[in-house]
Amino acid sequence: MTGWIERLAHAPDGFLVFVAVLAAVAVYLGFSGLRRSRQIEDVPTAKVRSAPQGYVELIGTAQMLGGEPIIAPLSHTRCCWYRYKVERRSGKNWRMVESGSSDGIFGLRDETGDCVIDPEGAEVTSRHEKSWSDNGGSRGGHPVHMQLPSLGRTADAVLDISGKVLDGIGAGIGPYRYTEAVILEGEPLYVIGRFHTVGSAGDGAGTRRELIGAVLREWKQRPDTLRERFDRNRDGQIDVEEWEDARQAARREADREFMEQQKRGQVHTLSRPLDGRFFLLSNLEEFSLLRRYRWRMRLGFSSFILLGGASVLMLSTRI
Question: How many of the other CB atoms lie within 10 Å of CB of 2?
Fold first, then answer.
């Protein structure tokens, strides 16, 4: 142990820079995991029907919307969202050939209503992420590994290392590697982002006046019904006071119709917050997400302590 510390203390300057960079990355990962876990814990869960305008957390199921379907380009799976990348082996390394993710809208449904999700700019975590490789023909080929985030970061790391071991052996594995993640229809969906209801702005005064006028015109076309409802003294005429009662009744009916129109016209949306706050989509449960980000926090801070200590030791020999 003493010999190892001695060698580390007299390591070349290039190694010192490398360790310092790794320490900076580790502390970034630690704070990133801390920030995300705090946000998941602190933002209360809302329902679509009663969610406030602004930064909210919603839990429901993923739903495909009408129109052109969203199809994952590698597996040709119909889904609500996908992310993919294609890499080519270059010696012992892999070089990115192509990558992308879907930006098409899809829906979240809970027991109170529907919300349209715009995934652009989101950090998406999916339980369905797989990698495979072949010779670049059919994009099918030999599966390398399947990530299982719900089992925790340790399981992910073991499976990822196993896949890399298979890559190193090279048995039956082609020069192309494919990775794809999807969110499927009907799966649980957990989201944090900016909630906004379209169609609820404005007081609608002009529309209300138009509806009141339409109701009164309709009633005037049926004078017998109008007299039956509002001719209180039964003189066969609608006087000023009775006409005012009719206007009040028309206003109430118009208000009910207006509210129904507003309700039918409202569209709830969730998208990236304008103030740069965390925007998350996942088909993992809240507990699994918290476990993932807590592992990131612990791993990041633990690595920073070790790497930072090594950097201090190496710097102490140079002062």
Answer: 6
